[in-house]
């Protein structure tokens, strides 16, 4: 006998990034069209553009929470712990026995390998992030750690939604985070995938990504409480095209969006706005344009946030999902940065200004290495 699945709502969120500490601070910077990306010099002959934290600020925030011993934790652990702290503090009624913790990251504490000679530190293992957070907040259920390239944060939301729909838990705290290490930076430099200026998503002169650091968190629940946002459709798909290059026809992204629309029982015409991956690499942006055209979405207002944050990897899709939700809740369209002259075909409708618009459905997409693709649809219940 078919059992109706309970609706899953977004109850609360938190963004901690160089752009701003807390979601509200981030929104204010986006409204002012400010970027956190700066030039960083490694030496006289080597520099790169990225959005990096002031480590002293992280330490200061940590010291403000007296029950934390800052020296015990890595930089990424501090950011994730601070994120969880904010969500739990603002939602004290959440029963942690009924809550699953999901952590999304692409690299974890990989920087610890640089100081290790012949052994692999325990903290390098991805599952250690979840165990650290579980221990300090006394989560009863064993955490889930996910790593699926650049869609990791979105996949965390999908897994959380599905677990709640199956009534395995009542709540889910989904975290995403990554910091920049020599390993990450050198890898993208070798791929020649980094712009030598602030990145320009979808622009004809785009040259590649900027790197970014961030952490983000979302509280999901089958108890609506005060929430106005419901996840009504989601999917992931893999185009299996190439380890570092997407399908030129957008095959995987088309499949992911189509499946999300089917679950939501929506036609593409129902979508009011898009938050796309928009990395500013040649192939990603071109692939997205083709995928959106195949689904007749190319005329929808589209925002890429990479020129605000850089590419924050495990946090990226989660941050951009939060911003999609805020766009719905505040009845505004947030502007993209960096696209002065459109450089993809078909031509996309890049959102250039902060604009008031009442919307009901927002689509978030992401794509990543290995051919992975993610799509999620959010519904504003107040705009029925």
TrEMBL record:
Alphabetical keyword list: Acyltransferase, Transferase
EC number from the UniProt entry: 2.3.1.179
Enzyme type, top EC level: transferase
Origin: domain of life: Bacteria
Protein name as it appears in the record: 3-oxoacyl-[acyl-carrier-protein] synthase 2
Name of the coding gene: fabF_1
């Amino acid at each position: 006998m078919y059992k109706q699945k309970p609706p899953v709502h977004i109850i609360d969120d938190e963004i901690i990034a160089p752009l701003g500490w807390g979601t509200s601070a981030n929104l204010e910077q986006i409204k002012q069209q400010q970027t956190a990306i700066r030039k960083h010099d490694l030496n006289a002959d080597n520099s790169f553009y990225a959005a990096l934290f002031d480590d002293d600020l992280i330490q200061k925030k940590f010291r403000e929470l007296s029950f934390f011993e800052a020296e015990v934790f890595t930089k990424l652990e501090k950011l994730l712990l601070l994120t969880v702290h904010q969500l739990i503090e603002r939602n004290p009624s959440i029963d942690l026995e009924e809550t699953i913790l999901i952590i999304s990251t692409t690299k974890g504490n990989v920087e610890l390998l640089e100081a290790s000679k012949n052994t692999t530190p325990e903290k390098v293992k991805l599952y250690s992030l979840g165990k650290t957070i579980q221990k300090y907040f006394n989560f009863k259920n064993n955490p889930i750690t996910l790593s699926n390239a650049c869609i990791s944060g979105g996949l965390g939301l999908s897994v959380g939604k599905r677990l709640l729909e199956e009534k395995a838990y009542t709540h889910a705290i989904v975290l995403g985070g990554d910091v920049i290490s020599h390993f990450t930076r050198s890898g993208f430099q070798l791929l020649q995938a980094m712009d030598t200026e602030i990145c320009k998503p979808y622009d004809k002169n785009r040259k590649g990504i900027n790197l970014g650091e961030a952490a983000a968190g979302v509280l999901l629940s089958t108890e609506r409480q005060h929430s106005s946002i419901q996840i009504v459709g989601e999917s992931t798909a893999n185009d299996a095209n190439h380890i570092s290059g997407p399908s030129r026809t957008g095959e995987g992204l088309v499949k992911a969006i189509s499946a999300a629309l089917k679950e939501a029982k929506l036609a593409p015409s129902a979508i009011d706005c898009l938050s796309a991956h928009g990395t500013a690499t040649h192939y990603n942006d071109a692939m997205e344009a083709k995928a959106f055209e195949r689904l007749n979405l190319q005329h929808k207002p589209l925002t890429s946030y990479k020129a605000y944050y850089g590419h924050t990897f495990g946090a990226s899709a989660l941050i951009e999902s939060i911003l999609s939700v805020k766009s719905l809740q505040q009845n505004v369209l947030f502007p993209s940065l960096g696209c002065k002259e459109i450089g993809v075909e078909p031509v996309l409708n890049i959102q250039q200004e902060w604009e008031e618009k009442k919307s009901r459905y927002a689509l978030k997409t992401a794509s990543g290495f290995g051919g992975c693709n993610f799509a999620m649809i959010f519904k504003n219940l107040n705009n029925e």
